[in-house]
Design a protein that fits this description.
The chain has one domain. 58% of the residues lie in helices and 7% in strands. It contains 6 helices and 4 strands; from the N terminus they run H-E-H-E-E-E-H-H-H-H. Helix 4 packs across helix 6. Bound molecules: zinc ion (ZN). Residues 92, 96, 148, 151 line the site of zinc ion.
Length: 229
């Protein structure tokens, strides 16, 4: 019985706070070579998606730390640096980390990246929704997103490079097209969408910590009961 309580508490806790990934040295070196200007001390990788997108089609996402001004967290549904597809996803998310860093610090979720990312999404979505319907507009808003296009170009180029050279991790002699010191993003956003992006980020920034504390309040007694009995 006590083991059951401990297991539930553990599952609940890690559903809210996914497990930190200890990166292997090869992947670390590769990321540092491809994105040499990123301060990797401020980046953490996690196995498991955040609770609010668990079960969605998303297989990885980069988000700001909830309780910090600088830390950036990359979450992976499945972390697989030993496969080409898995490694390409890591390279893709690395590009988003670069975008976060270039766009500056903030408070918790309130980062310029978050505001611009959501604003760009809304701008594309509402441009297409009347003519094409919500499903297609949603797809276009993701595929034509100005922050996604270079990230996908990067991971595609990385995959092609690996396949061409029949090597899994080409840490040395990387082609210059793969190395990025800046993300190159400059926002071109109409004010209403910028405002929407800001308000969404603000709402999420304020609500998320309370929801997570609520989950912790449920998990804590289960943990205590599991330890005592
Ligand atoms: Zn992406």
């Amino acid at each position: 019985m006590s083991k059951r309580f401990l297991r539930i508490a553990d599952t609940l806790y890690h559903w809210v706070f996914p497990r930190v990934i200890e990166q292997d040295a090869e992947t670390q070196t590769l990321l540092r070579n491809i994105y040499p200007t990123i301060n990797w001390q401020k980046v953490r990788f996690y196995e498991g998606l955040p609770w609010f997108i668990a079960g969605s089609y998303v297989n990885a996402i980069v988000l700001p730390a909830t309780w910090n001004r600088q830390y950036i967290h990359a979450y992976f549904a499945v972390y697989q640096p030993d496969t080409l597809a898995g490694l390409s996803t890591i390279i893709h998310e690395g590009f988003h980390v670069l975008q976060y860093q270039d766009l500056g610090k903030g408070i918790g979720f309130m980062r310029r990246f978050m505001v611009c990312y959501l604003a760009d999404y809304f701008q594309l979505f509402f441009k297409n929704i009347l003519k094409k319907g919500s499903q297609v507009a949603n797809r276009i808003a993701y595929e034509k997103h100005p922050m996604e296009i270079p990230a996908y170009t990067q991971d595609r180029y990385f995959s092609q490079h690996c396949l061409r050279h029949k090597m899994r991790i080409p840490s040395t002699q990387l082609p210059s097209q793969l190395i990025h010191t800046h993300c190159g993003y400059s926002p071109q956003l109409a004010f209403p969408f910028l405002l929407m992006g800001f308000l969404m980020t603000l709402l999420f920034m304020l609500i998320k910590p309370f929801i997570e504390v609520f989950f912790l309040i449920i998990a804590a007694p289960m943990y205590v009961i599991g330890r005592i009995f």
